[in-house]
Amino acid sequence: MMCVTVGEGGDDGTLRVYAGCWNGHVYEFTYSEGSWIKVDVGGGAGQSNMNCIVIGTGRNDDTLRLYGACMDNSIYEFTYSDGTWHSVNLGSTFIGIRSITIAPGRNDGVMRLYIGGVAFMGVSIAEAWYQGGVWYLLPLADETHAVVSHLTLGYGHNDDSLRIYASSEVRPNIVELTYSGGYWGEPQPVSGQIGSPRMYGVAVGTAHNDGVMYVYGSNWDSHIYEFLYKVSWVVEDIGFGGQCTYDDAMRCVTVGKGRNDDTLRVYGSCEDGHIYEFTYRVAGIKEKTTHLQDKKLEVLPNLFSQKTVIRYSFPQAIRLVGDPSENGKRNDYTINDSRLTIHDLAGRLVKSFGSGDPKLPKLNNSSMGW
Question: What is the dihedral of CA 55, 60, 61, 62, to 10 degrees?
Fold first, then answer.
């Protein structure tokens, strides 16, 4: 599967899972009476990846529909009616569409499609809308931004104007487009020479939980960058995943309440196989965490010695990066929430060591006698 989303694609009030597949089709999964029911919604012909799926009222008629961006150079619209799915090929001028979203990008309340992909015939970003029974396509950006990996819309300037934000695989690797005075302006750079040329993902959100909107970009260098607009763009590196190499690209970024605790956090998916979470603390500290699993060590007693050696390896410490202090230096902290507990064969707790316990040796690739 190439992409996934959840929503009321059938416009019947029921939430379902929709997935785009490498064969160009969209599949619907409905959970009913303890099992999942799979339906082939439809799609393009041949082995063409369905790269992105969105759900929205693309025709502004209060009917929710599915829209899929396919590598066969087409946008597909799927409507559920009379007990079956109906598809329409909206066409495109792209070679390999990467991203699609739905929003009132002109700030007029009218929903339109916004499309990003590989530049072809001078187009890498386009706007599509439905009017009078016909779909129209308007190019917004040319081949200067040759490969658009992802695009979204948001209030990146913290004003009343919704704008397009697109991540690109050439510099500037994040650009914004603004509709004003009856036309779309030229793409303007958000990022400069930050990171590698390849910015794969882009998101807009209030991850500081203070109501201020920031733009976030996930980069090929495995970092996530944060951009704040103050007359010009101010950038900060909020952290990284993997080994901080080009082999561990940070592919996607989003902002949400992943812990269901009313705190917005930044989440990035990395090619090292992990999802990373970044939390901005009220005191000015951003916390990078990963999902750490419990590890059980199988240790057998040594019948010829009164001492048993336990070898263990804990994850590396988490680095907390603070805001600059008054003297211009950062207040950085390092913590590790790992704990080693020792139990006997009956499961009774014998000894427990916390990561800050002075009796516990260093946490990485260590051993201790017992």
Answer: 50
- pTM score: 0.74
d(CA 170, CA 193): 10
Q: Residue for token digits 């329409």?
A: 88
> What is the C-alpha to C-alpha distance for residues 38 and 32, in angstroms, rounded to an integer?
11
* CA neighbor of 177 nearest in space, from 133, 201, 145, 132: 145
Closest CA to 127 of 116, 145, 111, 114: 114
Distance CA 49, CA 3 (A): 10
pLDDT single digits (tens) 182-208:
999 998 999 877 767 789 999 999 999
17-46 per-position pLDDT tens digit: 999 998 889 999 999 999 999 999 998 766
Bridge partners, residue 174, by sequence: 167
Number of residues in the chain: 370
The label of the residue with tokens 């946490």 reads: 363
Say what the alpha-carbon torsion angle 129, 75, 3, 24 is, to the nearest 10 degrees.
160
Backbone angles phi, psi at 272, to 5 degrees: -80, 5
CA gap 149, 44 in Å, rounded: 20
Q: What Å distances lie between residue 10 and 41, 57, 87, CA to CA?
A: 10, 12, 13
The upper half-sphere exposure of residue 276, i.e. CA atoms within 13 Å in the direction of its Cβ, equals: 28
